[in-house]
Specification:
The protein has about 350 residues and is α+β, with helices and mostly antiparallel strands. The chain folds into three domains: about 5-55 and about 170-295, Rossmann fold, CATH 3.40.50; about 75-155, no CATH class; about 305-355, no CATH class. The protein is about 35% helix and about 20% strand. It contains ten helices and eleven strands. A five-stranded antiparallel β-sheet has the order 4-3-7-5-6. Strands 10-9-1-11 form a four-stranded mixed β-sheet, with helices on both faces. The longest helix is centred in the C-terminal third of the chain and has 29 residues, at about 295-325.
């Protein structure tokens, strides 16, 4: 599936959607008494790849702190899993033939690590870095590597500073924290089908004062399984917002779209949109590209074609008015917009056709 398709689906909702963070956290109005909450629908990637591990920093590295450990403070290392004996003394970077290393020396001291290209003079010629070798290092030729200070290595290998979590655990923690900290907003939750066939509404979009606890409870039950049907799930989210019939939510596992998200117990979604000025957002939390994700392709293409055809018909009407009533004012500006949408060659073709 083309990666662009996911972005296109949002257009088919035909509703105002913005990615501004400040807007996501609540809609404002001229009269606060008449304000309407923004709608935010999170889509959680529950695919098998979310089992992958990530490093989570508990205490950030501070170059002004001397960390205890077995790594030598005055050495640099070219691998995070190197043993203490595989370092290079920092003087290897400050020899007369250590060309191009001035910035690297400053960075590794101030940040704890630096990415560069390095070679080492050993056994009579320039070679790749040799573990535990203190020969001269130059920084303007060779292969790309990270160098880490001994102090950084001691910080990195101290388990009290770092931990490992799965990708799902990291994302779940972030969303749960948001449900505790936000107010005056409507929030809901979707997830992928366990058999990679679209997704379902797991918590309807409603006031976070009510939906927050439901979302946290659902998140605690999630575990990684299946593929990554991004387009299909985004399309189902669009159908929910538009109040249309479900396409994937009726056969999803481990459950179908919740009854609260539908009109009664029917197959018709109950849209959470209450006002035309309301802001409506879909936030996709995923770690990868789509897989097993083709069942909505035809529907999405048809949706895009309908929107495109409507836009072209509107622009043609404007173009005709422009030809009949002169090339000034608002119509002239709209025809310039038409030219940018359709392309110069098509613009000229239509121009002659209207003659």
């Amino acid at each position: 599936m083309n990666k662009c398709a996911v972005a296109v689906i949002a257009l088919c909702i035909n509703l105002p959607i913005s990615a501004d963070d400040t807007e996501i956290y609540g809609a404002t109005a001229i009269d606060p008494a008449n304000r309407v909450n923004s709608n935010v629908l999170f889509i959680m990637d529950t695919s098998g790849s979310m089992q992958g591990s990530v490093d989570v920093t508990l205490n950030p590295y501070n170059p002004n702190t001397t960390y205890s450990g077995s790594y030598y403070f005055n050495d640099v290392y070219n691998g995070l899993n190197d043993s203490q004996s595989k370092g290079h003394h920092t003087t290897s970077l400050t020899q007369s033939s250590s060309t191009g290393c001035a910035d690297e020396v400053v960075t590794v001291a101030s940040v704890g690590k630096v990415l560069g290209v390095f070679q080492q003079y050993r056994n009579g010629r320039w070679r790749s870095l040799g573990d535990g070798n203190d020969g001269t290092i130059r920084c303007n030729q060779g292969s790309a590597k990270w160098l880490y200070s001994g102090n950084y290595m001691n910080w990195y290998h101290d388990p009290s500073n770092r931990t490992t979590s799965t990708r799902m655990e990291v994302v779940v923690d972030v969303v749960k924290e948001l449900t505790h900290s936000l107010s005056d907003i409507n929030m809901g939750l979707m997830r992928f089908d366990q058999n990679s066939d679209g997704g379902m509404i797991d918590v309807e979009v409603s006031d976070i004062a009510t939906s927050g606890a439901l979302i946290r409870s659902k998140l605690d039950s999630y575990y990684p399984q299946g593929g990554t049907p991004l387009e299909e799930t985004m399309y189902e989210a669009a159908r929910y917002y538009r109040g249309e019939d479900w396409m994937f939510g009726n056969n999803s596992l481990p459950n179908i779209s919740v009854v609260e998200s539908r009109v009664g117990s029917s197959s018709h979604y109950l849209s959470s949109i209450e006002a035309s000025c309301q802001k409506n957002h879909i936030i996709l939390l995923t770690d990868g590209e789509p897989t097993n994700d083709t069942s909505a392709n035809d529907d999405v293409r048809a949706c895009v074609n309908r929107e495109y055809d409507t836009s072209i018909r509107t622009q043609l009407q404007l173009f005709r008015q422009w030809r009949l009533h002169g090339r000034t004012g608002v119509l002239d500006e709209k025809c310039r917009s038409f030219r940018s949408i359709c392309g110069q060659s098509r613009y000229h073709h239509l121009y002659h056709w209207w003659l």
